[in-house]
Fold this sequence. Notes:
The complex is a heterodimer.
Chain A: H1 3-31, H2 37-54, H3 65-90, H4 96-107, H5 123-138, H6 140-147, H7 155-162, H8 175-199, H9 204-215, H10 232-245, H11 249-256, H12 260-264, H13 267-286, H14 294-309, H15 324-336, H16 349-367, E1 376-377, E2 380-381, H17 384-408, H18 415-426, H19 447-461, H20 465-471, H21 473-477, H22 479-484
Antiparallel strand pairs in A: 1-2
Helix pairs in contact in A: 1-2, 1-3, 1-5, 2-3, 3-4, 3-7, 3-20, 4-5, 4-19, 5-9, 6-8, 8-9, 8-10, 9-10, 10-14, 13-14, 13-15, 14-15, 17-18, 17-19, 18-19
Chain B: E1 2-6, H1 10-20, E2 25-30, H2 33-42, E3 46-49, H3 55-60, E4 68-71, H4 76-89, E5 93-97, H5 107-114, E6 118-120, H6 122-135, E7 141-145, E8 150-156, H7 168-175, E9 180-186, E10 189-191, E11 204-209, H8 211-220, E12 230-234, H9 238-249, E13 253-258, H10 261-270, E14 275-278, H11 284-289, E15 297-300, H12 305-318, E16 322-326, H13 333-337, E17 343-345, H14 347-364, E18 370-376, E19 381-387, E20 408-415, E21 418-420, E22 433-438
Parallel strand pairs in B: 1-2, 1-4, 2-3, 4-5, 5-6, 12-13, 12-15, 13-14, 15-16, 16-17
Antiparallel strand pairs in B: 7-8, 8-11, 9-10, 9-11, 18-19, 19-22, 20-21, 20-22
Amino acid sequence: MNYAVIRYILGLVILFEGAFLSLPCIVAMIYREARGIPFFAVMLLCFFVGFLLSHKKPKNMQYYAKEGFAAVALSWILLSFFGCLPFVFNGDIPSFTNAMFEMISGFTTTGASILSDVEVLAKCSLFWRSFSHWIGGMGVLVFILAILPMGGGQNLHLMKAESPGPSVGKLVPKVRQTAKILYGIYCFMTLIEIVLLMFGGLPLFDSMLLSFGSAGTGGFSILNSGLADYSPYIQYTVTVFMILFGVNFNVYYFILIRKFKDAWKFEELKYYLFVIAAAVICITYNIRDLFPTLESSFRHAFFQVGSIITTTGYSSVDFNVWPEFSKVILVMLMFIGACAGSTGGGIKVSRVILMLKTVKKEMYFYIHPRSIRKIKFNQHVVEHEVIRSINIFLITYMMILAFSTLLIALDGFDLITDFTAVVATLNNIGPGLELVGPTSNFGMFSDFSKVVLMFDMLAGRLELFPMLVLISPITWRDTKVFKKIPKYRKDSPGV
Amino acid sequence: MNIIIVGCGKVGRSLVEQLSSENHDISIVDPKAYVVQSMVDMYDVFGIVGNGASYNVLTEVGVEEADLLIAVTNSDELNLLCCLIAKKAGKCATIARVSNPVYFDEINFIKEEMGISMIINPELAAASEMSRILRIPTAMEINSFAKGKVELLKFVLRKSSILNGMKMKEIGERMRGEVLVCAVERQKDVFIPSGDFVLQENDRISIVASPRSASKFFQKIGVQMNPVRNVMIVGGSKTAYYLSKKLLRIGISVKIIDKDFDRCEELSVLLPKAVIIHGNGSDQEVLLEEGLLETDAFVALTNFDEENVFLSLFVKGQTPAKLITKVKRVSYNHIIDGLDLGSLIYPEYITAQYIVQYVRAKQNSIGSNIENLYKIVDGKAEALEFHIEEHAPVIGIPLQILPLRDQILICSINRNGTVKIPTGQDMIQVGDTVIVVTTKTGLHDISDILKKE
């Protein structure tokens, strides 16, 4: 294990967090809030710690997948640790566990809150909460890769560990350029959403925060009522943007370079839109009696479906009181999640499609035992390795889900609460059902359960394995052996 | 530049390694998924699995925006087809690897008619390198510059040499400016020597000289020239064929040992003047019987690196003959270097070097006046050919008072087709081509060699 590289990367991450923390400081200055001072103090602390860790560049910058995984997992934990300190110091969230939960929930774009009243928070705290969604959505390491020239092809290991989806493809040859394009598209779409929301009559501050929440598919809202009190125009706009941010960003890249045909070739996009349409129709029909007009039941169904499938977790209405059929559909959407390569969480539409295709192939095999069939996706043959890794992902996912539910059950709440609490955190959604429904929060859980849920959020955001690699002893065991290997000489041979 | 590399064998890998470190946008194409995967994991490149001659694959990898396509798969025909399709689908320059001797005489026709910018033949390139080494056997490595008018020779300073303990200035006086020591490797360090630099035993010295004065120089410093009159080659590969052809042309007799009877028959038809022996070259008795002890040079050219290395180790113990060992796997170079096996030839690496030189020249033709760039002494130093434009700050100043930066040396001045190894009194003029050797990288203009005020 190359500790020096991990130290260096962590140092960079903390330095960047320091830079991000300057934004809530500015907000505090504009609104003249004394509760902004801790943000300034923590910013200085981040600069100090980050500088200590990163000012000495390691001689050996060679790193492999395990260092990439460990560095990403650790940096997300550190990010949340430093990010939660201002809340503890300025008294908005005095308990450290609660603050950490809130911050992990922010960076992992979950949006699960332990606060019962968000309206009493300082503006700068509100801003920092929502901004963490925006950074967490695309990933802080991807941001660093876009800005700093790190050199070497191994950066893909970092990007792989941080980006959602079964396989990470680059858009262009260089990792740095790819990261830049992704952030460019991300910033552009966020800006458009801010402007459109301002057209709907929202103040700049509110529209920024709502846009951050939907861009990162996070879900922290700034009113206790969620999005229920906003006008239909705002609700529609937010819904459309949530769904847009749940689309694979490669699609936007192809649109950007005017390869519209290639953009439409993404099978995942078609299934994603189909699932949304089907769910909206079913739910609209199911809840038609709860609302005065068909338009409003359609609007709420559309909003909830868009919010849940992209794992955002905004709510325009308390869907906990909806009929069982609608609730089950929503829980199913929680599992499916958004597209690979988007900012959303969940199992991902592409994994679900590939699994369904495997099942179909297996059925075919029962009927024609000697048949040979290859699974195709996006008109390309899918390698057996990819299918295998998806299988393992699903098994691991189910095990974490079951085990976490078991641990949460110690608190003695009902099964639906426990189950949906884990589902909502592991898939980075936010609200679940019953006691953790859209109108309630996670505050009533014990500290132990909160730690379990924090782990679930991080595991869900980083696609399970980085967190497992981090806590697995195998990763750290062969450290001594690594030191003995002499440095690989990359000289060219004498000819 | 935006470069597509088709085929990720040893040449492709070597190319990716060197070009990606020079900040080009590289995309690779290979039919094997695991090869592409491992390349993408290791280098900052974009990978596509597929057949590089397919139009769809090429458009997917972005041939429309590419500046250069390099086809280096194992198949000549596939490489040519790749280049042809890339040419039609995009506007890029193309480089193809073609190694079958059948196409050897037709290569210019193919190149012209198909509009290919460069055709590279690894076996031929390796053979040229070997024949150059055999021509001047004391040298470990020879590079040629300025269209062959200047050569850079590398040799080891043995105990007996009169250069031991000599200062650079004295060498200059004794040799009357015909040669110039431009780089000295001592253990792992590389020096660009100044006037007071003192040479030591076991230094590896690179000198610049014209081909004629080089042999004079060796005579003067008391190094025996050991002219090679006969060569023994083990392994009748394509490289052996090209090498024999070159050697026979300059009157060196050749003996090829190969264990495949059919190949021996083919070679005997192709090379009537060479002696072809059907036998196992790794059998020591066969070698001794065929006159290993009388031979002037021995070339290990079998298809297996291990066999070549062992053969050379054996021959080294038997006779002081000049040794050349072919090694395919570049990655073990530092282990093999330690065995002192004479000259090592890495065909794949040489091929990659040729292509990299082309890429650098193409790159440099934009926005700088570098004509050529060569990596020398194991890539630790660079030799740059600059064309001197008007108003260059170096014109008309005697070299001894020119404020050069450290670790920079002007090695030769090419004026109207004649090459001069400069002394302190010489001046650079407009229209000259100047070769500069340096351990610094990133020089773009002749003014970069001067100290900054």
